[in-house]
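User: I'm preparing a small set of examples for a lab meeting where we compare how different chains pack in three dimensions. I only have the primary sequence for this one, and I'd like the structure in token form so I can line it up with the others. Please keep the answer compact; I'll paste it straight into my notes.
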Amino acid sequence: LWLSGAMIDKPAAVFASASSLHGGHESVLQSMMTPLLHHGMLILGCPYSDPGLAATQGGGTPYGPTHLDAEELRPHEEDMAVRLGQRLIKWSQHD
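Assistant: Understood. Below is the structure token output for the 95-residue chain.
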């Protein structure tokens, strides 16, 4: 796929889990984005208009949804992931 350029202008999103609040959530997401950008993909994140970002206590960043693996999944974390998935679907339908 990469050699043919098939991934150019295709949308992508990333999400992650870490074992602690300062476990590198944002660094992991940024690292995951790098190869996608190299392939010309369009990266979608969680905009500050997402209500989950204001409610999070460790489960989300503008780069994508995250979760503390030692805790139960909170509704706003799940909602952020679902909204990002919906945005990904929407952008996938553009041609």
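A couple of notes for your slides: The longest strand covers residues 64-68. The CA atoms of residues 52 and 76 lie 5 Å apart.

User: Perfect, thanks.
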